[in-house]
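Hi U.,

Before I forget, here's the chain from the pilot set. I'm dumping it here mostly so it's searchable later in email.
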Amino acid sequence: MWTPDRLFRVFPNLGEMRERRAGRMSGGEQQMLTVARTLMGDPRVVLLDEPSEGVAPVIVAQMADMILELKRAGVAILLSEQNLHFAQRVSDRVYVLEKGQIRHAGTMRDFVGDEVAWRAYLGV
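Structure:
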């Protein structure tokens, strides 16, 4: 069960701004608040759509830590993300979608080591 105290341990920034209105938070802080509010419903799965987009690097790092903590707590994470470095840090598996079709599926470890896949899907 996700209690406010438990959420503030996962999201220490939010604990420090309990009295601040959401409209006065940064984009990254608002994203953390959205995830925290979602967790109050005690979900088994959370979908995160581009959580690192347009967010300061320090918040991106905090988001990664938060995702890893959620995984340790038994919450499954479905992440849609274009920032490969961020995805590498938090993901176990990778699915590359192109025009609605799965073009690659496997472990993140295998994907990172597959130069052919990198060139084909990432233009590297």
